[in-house]
Amino acid sequence: MTDLSISQYANDLIPVTESQSNDQTQVGAEISIEQLYKYYGDVKVLEDLDLNIAAGEFVAIVGRSGCGKSTLLRLIADLEQASYGEIKFKSLHNFREGITSDDIRVMFQDPRLLPWKSILHNAQLGLKKDQLAKAEQLLEKVGLKEKSKLWPSQLSGGQRQRAALARALSHTPRILLLDEPLGALDALTRLDMQNLIEKLWLEQGFTTILVTHDVSEAVQLADRIILLDQGHIAQQFRIDLPRPRQKGSAFAELEQQVLTAVLAT
């Protein structure tokens, strides 16, 4: 496994957790993955994978279809069990070692809203009575305050994904897993959602892992990009661009470097 700077000309890299904004209140959990294997029968999906993700870090995982991206996300979410290896969690300040499934939320490409419940009731799923106001606050943050009484069928695709994001964040997760949640959206809506996810991540400081086929999206959002190839970490790229990121020449150069690496796998 190689660990490369996204810029070949950078001599010194600021660690990801130090380069984030001082205003970010980190509540995220550290993720430590050791010797992870996953098999489906005779098919090897992940093999001897080691990875450490810092609390509050934003990591994007890219790679060709079938390389193990979504499987890795499902293992972290405890939606599947590893064939071998360990996935361990630790809170930033060590005051809560026991990170549970309640601290982890997943957003999929399909928003998975319940069609017989209003947007507000979807956002409140799983919350205790004294937490219901949190869902209302999140709907306001994602721009759906005026849509809270509507049914999912009455919203656009982008609005449904905003509702799914509000539902995930209403549980105050320490880890947010994003499995290509923006893949089905049009270009402008996708950009809006990227900005919204980044804004809420900066505000709340949860650890984020994004699986995406869109290299531009990975460079736009991530502190670090991990390239998977046949169940292995082929390369890692640290993104050292100031936020909010502008798509100028530096951005294009970084995007091309990651894309070239993906195409070479």
TrEMBL record:
It holds the Pfam family ABC_tran. Gene3D superfamilies: P-loop containing nucleotide triphosphate hydrolases (3.40.50.300). The keyword Heme does not apply. GO terms for molecular function: ATP binding; ATP hydrolysis activity. SUPFAM superfamilies: P-loop containing nucleoside triphosphate hydrolases (SSF52540). CDD domains: ABC_NrtD_SsuB_transporters. Coiled coil: none annotated. Keywords: ATP-binding, Cell membrane, Membrane, Nucleotide-binding, Translocase, Transport. Residues 31-255 form the ABC transporter domain. PANTHER family: ALIPHATIC SULFONATES IMPORT ATP-BINDING PROTEIN SSUB, TAURINE IMPORT ATP-BINDING PROTEIN-RELATED. Belongs to the ABC transporter superfamily. This is ATP-binding cassette domain-containing protein. It comes from Acinetobacter rongchengensis.
